[in-house]
Amino acid sequence: MPEIRQRGTAALLLPDALALQPRYLADLEHLVSIDSGSYSPEGVNRIAAWTVRRLTGLGFEVDRSPVTAPGRDTHFGDVVVGRLRGRLPAEQGGRRILLAGHLDTVFDDGTAAQRPFTRNGPLAHGPGVSDDKGGLLAGLTAVELLLRRGMTDFAEIVFLATPDEEIGSPASRRVTAELAAAVDYGLGLECARENGDLVIARKGVADFLITVTGRAAHAGIEPERGANAALAAAQLLIVCQQMNERWGDVTVNVGVIRAGSRINIVCPEAELHVEVRSSTGSGVQRARQAIEAAAAHLTVPGTTATVRQTEACPAMEDTPAARAVFAHAREAGAELGLDLGAAATGGVGDANTIAGAGVPTLDGLGPVGGGDHSPQEWLDVTTVPPRVALLAALITALGSTATADPDTRSTPIRVI
Q1: Which of 18, 200, 362, 398 is the least crowded, having the fewest Cβ atoms under 10 Å away?
Q2: CA angle 128, 68, 40 (to 5 degrees)
Q3: Is residue 27 within a helix (H) or strand (E), and if so which, with residue range?
């Protein structure tokens, strides 16, 4: 463990975090043993029920509600929202802080039995151990540290646990946005990057469906009467892929292409599913305009195309307000001997929605982990006490902070 440099809130809380480490690990093993894939509502709801019990035991007022995704008949698990009032009302400078984690994983039912929780030296393994059961549990433990010490100088802590983050939060995104509209700060409970960095920026995502319409004809007798939508779609695919790196970090990916139904018919219809990612909303907009322009000028005579946006998730942008939150985290980390870095990532999460509401947001505040979404997923259990103490100290710093100065040390951003 890094050497403690000075006695501040984070250092004060570290012994308590160390004392809670055995229970943290026991709880982590229990949570990892439960399959809770996004499309397994029964398993997700077992994690939800456990989270409700823990929040209730800490004094939260808890609401657990079913959620549905517009236009989908898929069943998801419940969303959990806990509210804990502090002793510093908003009118006296208290702040509302949203802690956001998720209940679901990417793994199918049966994975927990195939790859149960294991310990190998400092590393714990198992489905969801890092993403996000380790982070979810870290948030609960950090709040417990504050309550044990009577550190409740905040207006309110709102604890959010979503059931569908791994598939883009189609059902819970509305709840997240509504909660974000009423808080002052957002703290994401995804685990820290493999090198210990916190996450200060995430790319936004927009998905598009391009439908290309041509004209059917017999491919052997009168192909000249047809207009091949598949050919037009193929050419459009090339145009879209060539947009990569045209606008800095904007990426454009045609992930799915479908066309035709029979080999002896000139293809009358095709579709492209396109994903755009950018660290800014303006980058997404530039790509959208270029895609629409390309779709309006197809080179295959007789074909037309329409573009429809199907999904959108705002960017979590690197802003001065987010830098101010990061400055508090760096200060707390320094007490614990941690030299925290800031990372920007192309992956999205619920922190995107929170930041998209204009809330200063910092993510990656769980313990250090990696290998997410793979059989090699791991969590460094030696990082649990200092990261839990760090998170608790950050909540305390933000809870009574009206304004904060940006990080004047100009920490470089690592893009991952």
Answers
A1: 18
A2: 35
A3: helix 21-32
